[in-house]
Amino acid sequence: MRTLDFILIVFGKFLHFLCSYARLGSGSSFPGRMLLVIDSQIIKRWLSKQDIKVIVVTGTNGKTTTAKLLEHILKNNNISCFRNSSGANLFSGIASCLIKEISVFGLLKEKVAIFEIDENVVDSFIKQAPPSMVIFLNLFRDQLDRYGEIDRIIKRWEKALYLIPFDSVLVGNADDPQIVHLLQKAKNSISYFGLPENQESLKPEKNLADIVYCPSCITRFEYKERFCGHLGLWECPKCRFSRPNVFIKELVDVFQADSLHQYNALAALCASEKFGICSKQARHSLQGFKPAFGRGEIVRYRKKKAHLLLAKNPISFTDSLKTLSSEKAKVVFLILNNHCQDGKDVSWIWDVDFSEVLKMEKIVISGNCAKELRLRLSYSLHQNTAPPIIYTEKRVKKALKFALSISSEEQPLFIIPTYTALLEINKYFKGADHLCT
Ligand SMILES: [Zn+2]
Question: How far, in Å, from the CA of 242 to the mean position of ligand 1?
Answer without folding.
Answer: 8
